[in-house]
Design a protein that fits this description.
A hairpin with a 6-residue loop joins strand 12 and strand 13. This protein has 396 residues and is α+β, with helices and mostly antiparallel strands. The chain has helices at residues 2-14, 64-78, 84-99, 142-145, 148-156, 181-189, 201-211, 366-373; strands at 49-53, 59-63, 104-105, 120-121, 228-229, 242-245, 248-251, 258-261, 264-267, 273-275, 280-288, 292-301, 308-317, 329-330, 335-338, 349-356. Helix 2 runs antiparallel to helix 3, helix 2 (64-78) crosses helix 5 (148-156) and helix 3 crosses helix 6. The chain has eight helices and 16 strands. It is elongated and about 70 Å long. Strands 5, 6, 9, 11, 12, 13, 14 and 16 form an eight-stranded mixed beta sheet that branches. A two-stranded antiparallel sheet has the order 1-2. Strands 3-4 form a two-stranded parallel ribbon.
């Protein structure tokens, strides 16, 4: 029934029946390829809660929103060359210590920080977010630091980091791997209380083990759950696109038939990176006669009334450019494909569709949806490599 529903949805959106293969959520099997075999498994189904204890025996209880932030840290670390499990553990320890894995606004120092999605407020100097990074120290702007993915990338640093070594991220610390993990976290955070981080190592390990637990080899299907994401990224890099056609009824430029244009078209040069709108799981990646090369990603978004399921669809992708497969876990802002002109298309562009409730539900106009979710704009240098792949090279 699930397959039939998806085929029916594609018929409705793109026209007559197409040669779609089965649409199923398969258990992720890829791991990030990192030096020395120090791999980090893909994020599986996100638990609703997790309980673990510090080295001193204090009980730490984390909800799904906090675990969603942990998943963002893990997936960012898994796509950053040189991080590995040890680096991910250091980052989790730091975020647990600094914010208890919550995105914290700071209304005293930056009143506008409360206008961005956040989980609470803090008042430590001008610190913001998961890692309590300070704009005054050069970590980034308020808008950047209220983005969990940006904070994770900044914490890891290195050649691909947004701060280019100043302030120093973990990869900018010489021989950080030789340091105790608590000391490595302190080397990045430069806290007045350097001994706090080590106590959270067993909690960090519990998070990493639970969120990347290998699925049972006998299980044929993923259970449909995905990482809860609080971050939305515009699906094309800044300055690369021009909006050409909106959502609504129109005469199709190729077929001449009046039909629903179920998304928004953004013209961009062929080869422009197409970015994952949010953290999620690839639900479909295959050619379609009308949509060309089609990619569908399932997402679970954090919201004021609890997690909400939705799907994003990307059409007319360039041949051979899709670097993810069904079941792969992707991170918001990671490159998943490139702009093309495949299928029924008159020129290179991205056709974006948004489906609240999932791809077999009715589409909605992407433009007001995006406006309501305040997407982050990434320039070319901030585009992440795709999760679950070994790609660490150019993003276009």
């Amino acid at each position: 029934m699930r397959v039939l529903a998806v085929i029916a949805a594609v018929v409705f959106l793109f026209g007559p029946p197409t040669a779609l293969t089965a649409y199923a959520l398969l258990a992720p099997t890829n791991t990030a390829c990192l030096p020395g075999g120090n791999t980090v498994g893909p994020i599986g189904a996100l638990p609703t809660q997790l309980t673990a204890s510090t080295t001193g025996g204090a009980v730490v209880r984390l909800d799904q929103v906090q675990l969603g932030h942990a998943a963002t840290i893990i997936t960012t670390g898994s796509t950053t060359e040189g991080v590995g499990q040890d680096g991910v553990l250091v980052a989790l320890m730091a975020a647990l210590t600094e914010s208890h894995l919550r995105m914290l606004a700071n209304p005293g120092a930056y009143p506008d920080s409360t206008t961005y999605p956040h989980d609470g407020t803090g008042q430590d100097h001008d610190s913001l977010g998961l890692f309590q990074m300070r704009p005054a120290a050069g970590w980034g702007t308020v808008a950047q630091l209220m983005d969990p993915g940006y904070q994770a990338a900044a914490f890891f640093g290195g050649p691909a980091g947004p701060n280019h070594g100043s302030p120093r991220g973990l990869l900018d610390i010489p021989d950080w791997q030789r340091l105790p993990k608590g000391a490595a976290a302190q080397a990045v955070e430069v806290s007045a209380f350097p001994d706090r981080y080590a106590q959270y190592e067993p909690v960090a390990r519990a998070i990493l083990e639970r969120l990347t637990a290998s699925p049972d080899a006998t299980d044929a299907k993923h259970d449909g759950a995905s990482t809860v994401s609080s971050r939305i990224v515009f699906p094309l890099p800044t300055g690369t696109w021009t909006r050409t056609h909106g959502f609504g009824m129109r005469t199709h430029p190729v077929t001449g038939v009046r039909s629903l244009h179920a998304g928004t078209d953004y013209a961009a040069p062929a080869g422009t990176p197409v970015l994952a709108l949010a953290d999620g799981v690839v639900a479909y990646a295959a050619p379609d006669p009308r949509a060309g090369n089609l990619l569908v990603i399932d997402h679970t978004l954090a919201g004021p009334d609890g997690p909400q399921h939705m799907a994003s669809a990307y059409s007319h992708l360039s041949d051979g450019s899709t670097v993810v497969s069904e079941g792969d876990v992707v991170t918001a802002g990671s490159r998943v494909a490139q702009v093309g002109s495949t299928g029924q298309s008159t020129g290179p562009h991205l056709h974006l569709q948004i489906h609240p409730g999932g791809f077999d539900a009715a589409p909605t106009d992407p433009e007001p949806w995006l406006a309501a979710h305040s997407p982050t704009d990434l320039d070319g240098s901030a585009v992440l490599a795709v999760a679950g792949s070994c790609s660490t090279g150019a993003t276009s």
